[in-house]
Amino acid sequence: MVLPKTIAVDGPAGSGKSSISFALAQRLSYLFVDTGAFYRAITLLALEQAIDLDDKARLTALAERARLGLSDHLPDDGRQYTILANGRDITPLLSSSEVDSCVSIVSAVAGVRQALLDLQRTVAARGQVIMAGRDIGTIVVPDADLKLYIDAALDMRAHRRYQQRLTSGESADLDAIRAGLSSRDTIDSGREVAPLLRAPDAIYLDTSELTLDEAVDAAYHIVCEWDRAHDAS
Ligand code: DC
Question: The domain spanning residue 63 has which CATH number?
Answer without folding.
Answer: 3.40.50.300
